[in-house]
């Protein structure tokens, strides 16, 4: 045991698992499992969100045969611990950042007489518990709990010191992990909203070469309708426009180095098919030069295909403007560029019925012309939700 606690490679490996924990499909399971091996534990539990009256909490656990921790782990599934025993637990609201043992809080003879011991600890053969409460960077409390069985000794001063060394790393790893998972969730929502509008996004590195592109941009390049991908670079079939694109990209890439106002340029790209021109916007990306790594995106190109119809939610149009389903459907069909006659035909209603719906739409939305209605629908949140 002492060799493991004093072994730097072991500690380094444990920290690696801790900082990578949020990216695991079962968050922090590798870290909690490694703790069991290093400290000879029965179970190890990371309580990311302690239970309260309105929330049964969120726990990640490892140990034993993996069946008992599963019952303890997910507060959303009405776990035994969070729903029945948490309020009886002597190790709650501990001094922040301090390792506390069960015997520090309650004498052993009192503990074995308590309902908490009889109903929870004894049935799960838990004899010793070490706990540590910490705060993340938002000031939210989370907890680490380590247990041993009746045949194992209590925690030593050296083991408590080892846990104490983990405290700042736990704070940082949990804070960063939660923040990155939240940012990733937000990014996915933004990406889905952008994809609704069929906007292609291309990120360029400091050489003007393509780092990554979204599916909408990939589709546009695959169509080879005036825009091509050649050796990781964007190429316009029109020679003069291609030179203009290169100039715009160079301006975007050089703006940060020269510390000038970041320019935004736009180009209309004719298409070989004769369809409406692609619309390109070239924007520099703000980069902190003191921490810029190789492969950092330095500029972004946005590509809009005007021919691509926007997927507008009927239900959201109904909620936004108080329209009936028939009225919302007509408004969306009109927003695709159809005439009243074409819209009535596609919806299977008479022109008089369609006109009646349109009058009701005008009254509810406050617009007075069909063109204004089209603009309203296409610019509404229903087109990006």
Key features?
385 residues, alpha+beta, Beta-Lactamase, Arc Repressor Mutant, subunit A, 3 domains, five-stranded antiparallel sheet, 18% strand, Tscrpt_reg_LuxR_C, Sig_transdc_resp-reg_C-effctor, WH-like_DNA-bd_sf, Helix-turn-helix transcriptional regulator
Explain what you see:
By secondary structure, the protein is of the alpha+beta class. The protein folds into three domains: 2-185, Transcription factor LuxR-like, autoinducer-binding domain (Beta-Lactamase); 197-304, PAS domain (Beta-Lactamase), CATH 3.30.450.20; 314-383, Winged helix-like DNA-binding domain superfamily/Winged helix DNA-binding domain (Arc Repressor Mutant, subunit A, Orthogonal Bundle), CATH 1.10.10.10. It contains 16 helices and twelve strands. The strands form three sheets. The protein has a five-stranded antiparallel sheet. A five-stranded antiparallel sheet has the order 7-6-12-11-10. A two-stranded antiparallel ribbon has the order 8-9. The radius of gyration is 30 Å and the shape is elongated. The relative contact order is 0.07. InterPro entries: Sig_transdc_resp-reg_C-effctor, Tscrpt_reg_LuxR_C, WH-like_DNA-bd_sf. Residues 320-377 form the HTH luxR-type domain. This is Helix-turn-helix transcriptional regulator.
């Amino acid at each position: 045991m002492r060799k493991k606690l004093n072994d730097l490679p072991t500690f380094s490996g444990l920290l690696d698992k801790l900082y990578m924990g949020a990216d695991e499909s079962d968050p922090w399971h590798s870290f909690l499992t490694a703790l069991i091996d290093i400290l000879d534990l029965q179970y190890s539990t990371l309580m990311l969100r302690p239970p309260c009256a309105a929330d049964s909490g969120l726990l990640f656990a490892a140990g034993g045969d993996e069946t008992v921790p599963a019952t303890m782990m997910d507060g959303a599934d009405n776990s035994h611990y969070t729903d029945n025993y948490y309020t009886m637990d002597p190790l709650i609201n501990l001094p922040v950042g301090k390792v506390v043992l069960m015997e520090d809080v309650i004498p052993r003879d009192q503990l074995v007489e308590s309902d908490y011991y009889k109903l929870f600890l004894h049935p799960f053969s838990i004899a010793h518990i070490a706990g540590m409460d910490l705060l993340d960077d938002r000031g939210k409390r989370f907890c680490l709990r380590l247990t041993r069985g009746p045949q194992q000794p209590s925690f030593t001063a050296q083991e408590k010191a080892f846990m104490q060394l983990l405290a700042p790393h736990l704070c940082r790893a949990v804070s960063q992990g939660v923040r990155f998972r939240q940012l990733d969730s937000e990014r996915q929502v933004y990406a889905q909203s952008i994809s609704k509008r069929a906007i292609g996004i291309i990120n360029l590195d400091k050489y003007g070469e393509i780092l990554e592109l979204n599916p909408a941009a990939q589709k546009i390049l695959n169509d080879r309708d005036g825009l091509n991908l050649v050796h990781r670079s964007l190429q316009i079939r029109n020679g003069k426009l291609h030179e203009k694109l290169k100039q715009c990209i160079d301006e975007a890439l050089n703006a940060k180095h020269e510390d000038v106002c970041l320019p935004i340029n736009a180009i209309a790209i004719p298409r070989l098919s004769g369809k409406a021109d692609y619309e390109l916007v070239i924007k520099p990306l703000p980069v902190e030069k003191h921490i810029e790594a190789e492969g950092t995106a330095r500029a972004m190109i946005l590509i809009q295909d005007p021919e691509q119809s926007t997927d507008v939610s009927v239900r959201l149009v109904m909620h936004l403007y108080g329209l009936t389903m028939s009225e919302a459907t007509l408004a969306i069909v009109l927003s695709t560029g159809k005439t009243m006659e074409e819209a009535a035909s596609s919806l299977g209603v008479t022109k008089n019925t369609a006109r009646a719906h349109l009058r009701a739409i005008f009254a509810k939305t406050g617009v007075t012309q069909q063109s204004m209605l089209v603009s309203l629908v296409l610019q509404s949140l229903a087109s990006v939700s």
